[in-house]
Amino acid sequence: MVKLSGVAFFLATFSAYISAQQADSCSGLAPSALAQCRGSQQKVQLEQLQQQVQQQQERQKQLDEQQRQIQQQLEDMRLQNDKLRAQLALDQSANQPGRPAAIDYSRTQEVRSWKSDNPWFGSDYAKTEFAIRYAKQLQRERPDLVGRPFLDALSAKVNENFAAKKW
User: Fold this and answer.
1) Which of 12, 58, 96, 106 sits at a 20 to 30 Å CA gap from 112?
2) Which of 137, 104, 102, 131 is nearest to 117 (CA)?
3) Could you read off the pLDDT of 4-29 as tens digits, one per residue?
4) Which pLDDT tens digit goes with each residue over 29-39?
């Protein structure tokens, strides 16, 4: 039992000595070689640090790009949400009870045609919001105006208003 623990002690000591030698591979060298060896070690450590910094910078670039993509997705979703809200508001204002519908959606071709002639609707927030507010006012003032004439009156007012302001 004593021999076995003595062997274990020797192995542990020898293992620690080997680890220490590996940690400082320059130990035991002559003074002139020691300085050169330590300089080489520092150069290797510096290169490793530079690689780590470069890897961190690359990871930061990846994270920045991911953040940019997420922000773009959020902006796209916000714009889509604005378009849907504008369309909903236009639908609601056109179909209020007690008033004739200013836009007859049974004539969807008519509405599609108007939208293709007015690509700002749903994509230009300011113009779309103005058109929705003006649609409500126009419907109160001219309840007899419906269909394409109503839509044309909207686009004429939008064009008149925004041409004057020179956004």
Assistant:
1) 96
2) 131
3) 455 456 556 555 555 554 556 777 77
4) 777 777 788 88
